[in-house]
Write a structure and sequence with these properties.
Layout: H1 3-20, H2 28-46, H3 55-74, E1 80-82, E2 94-99, E3 106-112, E4 124-130, H4 135-144, H5 146-153, E5 158-159, H6 162-165, E6 171-177, H7 186-212
Antiparallel strand pairs: 1-2, 2-3, 3-4, 4-6, 5-6
Helix pairs in contact: 1-2, 3-7, 4-7
């Protein structure tokens, strides 16, 4: 807010403040208190409403994100559908999405709060590409393209720890800190990011699958 804006707001709200908070008191102390009150109101307006949602609302949020991603992908000629009802897992905290022509591979969006590592204690949303059991034919060729995919996405793609990959679980994921997004915009913003991740990885997956055939 500029100084002119502040003065304008001061003039508009001064009389209201004095009538409501300190009727009949026009001294300097009252105006000082008013200035503090006004700054507090302005600061409150600037603070974004964080995405603090309960378990039921989070499920609806995931549905909105997936719907946004599906719509954006359809515009690119890629048809994805939510299949959480037939994939094991906690439906309230995750959604699984399959893309046409990718039979043993699927995408997942889920909530996670890591206890270790650089993301420890954060309230995160993960968008994952699940390639379990497809080490040599899918994961390793895609790993070779990881830097190129990150360049196209403009963000880091993370993989599982080696101890987890040793069990046959191969995933690429992008992570979002839910506390950094405004509640009103989160579905659109994360839906767009999810669609971009799926589009970029799908293009490379298609090349790999075609080369394998």
């Amino acid at each position: 807010m500029t100084e002119r804006d502040f003065v304008s707001a001061f003039e508009q709200r001064k009389e209201l403040f004095i009538r409501q908070v300190m009727p009949g008191d026009n001294n300097r102390k009252a105006l000082d208190l008013f200035e503090k009150w006004l700054k507090g109101k302005l600061e409150h307006k600037k603070k974004p409403q964080k995405s603090q949602v309960n378990k039921k609302e989070f499920g609806l949020l995931l549905d909105s994100i997936v719907k946004e991603a599906e719509s954006r992908l359809a515009g690119k000629g890629i048809y994805a559908s939510c299949v959480s009802s037939i994939v094991p897992g906690n439906r309230s905290n995750s959604r699984c999405i399959r893309v046409k022509h990718l039979d043993s591979i699927y995408y997942r969006i889920c909530k996670t709060s890591p206890r270790k590592g650089k993301h420890s204690g954060k309230n995160l949303l993960a968008v994952e590409l699940i390639m379990d059991g497809n080490k040599n034919n899918i994961f390793l060729p895609l790993l070779f393209e990881k830097a190129n995919m990150e360049k196209e996405l403009g963000m880091e793609i993370e993989r599982e720890r080696q101890t987890i990959e040793a069990t046959g679980k191969y995933r690429f994921k992008i992570l979002f800190d839910l506390d950094e997004y405004e509640e009103k915009a989160i579905a659109r913003q994360l839906g767009e990011a999810m669609a971009k991740f799926m589009l970029v990885t799908w293009n490379y997956l298609n090349q790999i699958i075609n080369n394998n055939n």
